[in-house]
Specification:
By secondary structure, the chain is an all-alpha fold. The chain has one domain (about 55-200): Up-down Bundle (Four Helix Bundle (Hemerythrin (Met), subunit A)), CATH 1.20.120. The protein contains 6 helices and no strands. It is elongated. Bound molecules: fe (ii) ion (FE2) (2 copies). The site of one fe (ii) ion has 6 residues, from α4, α5 and α6.
């Protein structure tokens, strides 16, 4: 901890407080290093929806909210089938179109980030390049999971006869995607939302 010394040679209580309450990433497994959080520290999450920032930050956050919501609904339907709440016909009718839509929307969102926003942010803040590399790799892993999910969903579309093993495999893919997405989306928000909120225009 760095103490600043005031004119009467005492550590400033304000500086002590600032160190004690320095913002930290929103989840303990964050992969963001302290040196990448200089913008996050200027615009911490409790200000993201403030009047000066919401018009710049809420669009991105809303897209992520919708991704989390679609992912949660799919997992709930899958759990509903696993627990016997839904029969095969109901499970299939609920899953098929939703999964196709979810995959499509995620690919669109990743495409816009990989081809547009991320390179733009790196050119604005070159020292954040390694952080955006992590997020870009996440997209690669997610694409692999989405390919798997698509194959399983296509198989589900052809399976009019109940196939419990397929439903179990599909459930596992959803669980893996939830784990990766929850880490990815939160790390991405901690990095990107302050950039959006603090940029001019
Ligand atoms: Fe992303
Ligand atoms: Fe995103």
């Amino acid at each position: 901890m760095t103490l600043s010394i005031t004119s009467d040679n005492k550590a400033s209580p304000q500086v002590l407080d600032d160190d004690l309450f320095a913002p930290s990433p929103r989840h303990p497994e964050s992969r963001l290093e302290a040196e990448w959080l200089f913008l996050y520290n200027k615009l911490p999450p409790d200000q993201w929806f403030g009047a000066d920032y919401a018009y710049k930050t809420s669009g991105w956050l809303k897209v992520h909210t919708n991704i989390r919501k679609r992912q949660r609904i799919l997992t709930q339907i899958s759990e509903g089938y696993q627990s016997g709440e839904y029969d095969w016909a109901k499970y299939r009718s609920q899953m098929l179109k939703r999964i196709n839509m979810h995959i499509l929307k995620l690919h669109q969102h990743h495409g816009v980030e990989d081809d547009g926003f991320f390179p733009e942010f790196v050119s604005m803040y070159p020292k954040l390049a390694p952080a955006f590399e992590i997020l870009g790799h996440d997209h690669g892993y997610l694409n692999g999971l989405l390919d798997k999910l698509q194959i399983q969903n296509d198989q589900l579309a052809r399976s009019e006869v109940e196939d419990k093993a397929l439903a179990e495999q599909l459930h596992q893919t959803l669980v893996d995607a939830t784990d990766l997405l929850s880490q990815h989306l939160t790390d991405e928000e901690d990095l990107v939302i302050p950039i959006l909120g603090l940029r001019q225009g």
